[in-house]
Specification:
Shape of chain A: elongated
Number of strands of chain A: 0
Structural class of chain A: mainly alpha
Mean pLDDT of chain A: 95
Largest interface: A-B, 42 and 41 residues
Largest sheet of chain A: none
CATH topology of one domain in chain A: Tetracycline Repressor, domain 2
CATH architecture of one domain in chain A: Orthogonal Bundle
Helix content of chain A: over 70%
Oligomer: homotetramer
Strand content of chain A: under 5%
Chain lengths: ~180, ~180, ~180, ~180
DNA sequence: CATGAATGAGGGTTCATTCAT
DNA sequence: AATGAATGAACCCTCATTCAT
């Protein structure tokens, strides 16, 4: 529901009540409980939709690249492109992921995506094996890349006019350099 | 209030009601409304306390370093040390910063600290001027450093046994390398 | 509607929503509102159907008996036989009768059946006139007989395996004795 | 809460919402959730209170009687006296007991009181052993006595002016006679 | 200074009913 | 005839805050 995304971005996860969402969509709030299992499911559905999208884009980008460094660059570029093209959705999804807690109080964003982790660590490990990267800790590298990319989203959130392509032109070389990559062999 | 920090970390910002906090502190919840302006002020006070602490530590570390690259490394090390020594407080403060919205719906974490930005950008700019760093975009560099450090906090949150000193040993060289720093001239 | 009876018995009058009834019947809930005036009418229809059935059976049994005491025994036996053969329907009907309130808040089960009362009081009065029964209060006698029979339904509800024929073998002599009847003159 | 009893009697269990109860009590509905665990607990508390009262009265009456038949008569008289003196409470308690279902859909009134059953069956069994009563089925006898007494409550509910003492004068000899008791040895 | 009873607004959800298809 | 999407009222409950004690 677009209204859910807009509402979450406007007033935040905690104040995104069914009443607010419904009002923004111009419908009765009971519809939400009717079409979804409840508020929870609606927001989790938003997350799922968005994160599936970003995963698809990044995987496709990675698959089209030749060597580990190029794959990492493609991953980052794909991520930033997705953020550029689906800014609102991404902001909402991250807001939800960061704010949502399951019944045990476990934050959603701490439940990491194993696939994404494996993809990233695999690229780094391959790069190290191929001599493109330094001998870095895989967990630290993976965490840093993800958070650095998240920084781009935050920038875009602070200032909607930020050019994410240009941001990538700056960030991607930094990430590669961080891993010890030398462009000119 | 320590109880507030524990409660926020346990159940999250959203569910951290005055009743829960007061119960954990063993007091009546009306005391909180009595001593603080309200729930809002209590949580903002927690943030302020913690972020003032991290700022003091990082500033002191930076002041003791000689050249820009060393200052940047000292900043990161100071930050990670503070996280190591005040893990619970930091987690709660970030949870609050991420979840809290002011009356206009503006998230607190988007209200950046100008001083911290200036400090970081200054170090990077100095490093570039001194030939220690490449010609990188100051905003991208600053954002990336902060988010990379935040990644360490997230790691520590996922797994409390993570060795943040070792994490820094890995991360700090990455950050310097990202900026084009060459340890051996 | 059989589904309505099953639902009422399963979850009770209060929770027997149209959604539940329709789901159990495998139809859309809007059909119920379409074919009946509403939920209210559906349940009242169930009551009417069942209570008409019990009335028919008891009247027929009474008509076939010769003297007042035999008629009272036949009434009780007919009632218990009906409960035995239509246990689910009776339980649902009583549940509805007990739970339903009209718009004024008047419970349905307090709206006594004048015909049943007249039938029972007539039998008792005839028995007194014929010297079969003691000089008992007609209202007390009638009320007690009905409630004693309802006790059998409750028993059957608590334990579905209860033998209602055997229950009648015990109860009917008690009822006659209560009225002062002496089997052997 | 007296308002809860009044409301249940007025509009029935199902329509006795917190809003109605609070309105009748002249308080905010949130108080109820504050003082009690919830609506459920409030109503169960009413039941408990009332049924504890009736149990105390009947037990005391029974204890003061000499032989089994006198004990049974005392039980019935005690019950009817309690109904006379706490008519509203009893009506509400029975309404709740009959209408309430636990989470499994189990009606509350089917969860019989083992103590009351044992008390009643004990009196009947003693009476049989002492030769005061016929050889009747204990379960049928017990169930019939209870339901016959409940009939008095129903009568009183239909017509508030009913004289329950006179009702008892009629009913108690019936009950004893039903069990085969002969007053004049 | 501390308390707990009380409040009223707002939360998500359920429900019988309506209506265009 | 049958449907499912949509509704709005009512449901119970949670909450931050107030206030007399």
């Amino acid at each position: 529901m677009d209204a859910a995304i807009a509402t979450v971005n406007d007033v935040g996860y905690h104040r995104a009540s069914l009443a607010q969402i419904a009002a923004r969509a111009g419908i009765a709030k009971s519809i939400i409980s009717y079409h979804f299992e409840g508020k929870e499911q609606l927001l989790l559905y938003v997350i799922d939709e968005v994160f599936t999208g970003v995963e698809k884009v990044t995987r496709a980008a990675v698959a089209a690249a030749d060597d580990p460094a190029a794959r990492l660059a493609a991953f980052a570029r794909g991520y930033l492109t997705f953020v550029r093209d689906h800014r609102e959705e991404m902001i909402a999804a991250v807001e939800i992921a960061v704010s949502h807690r399951d019944v045990d109080g476990m934050p959603l964003y701490l439940a990491e995506s194993d696939e994404e982790n494996a993809l990233l660590e695999g690229m780094v490990a391959d790069g190290i094996a191929a001599g493109q990267f330094r001998q870095v800790d895989l967990t630290v590298a993976r965490t840093t890349v993800i958070h650095a990319l998240d920084g781009a989203l935050t920038r875009s959130q602070i200032d909607a006019r930020v050019d994410l392509d240009a941001y990538g032109d700056q960030l991607i070389p930094m990430l590669l350099a961080a891993l010890g990559y030398r462009p000119d062999g």
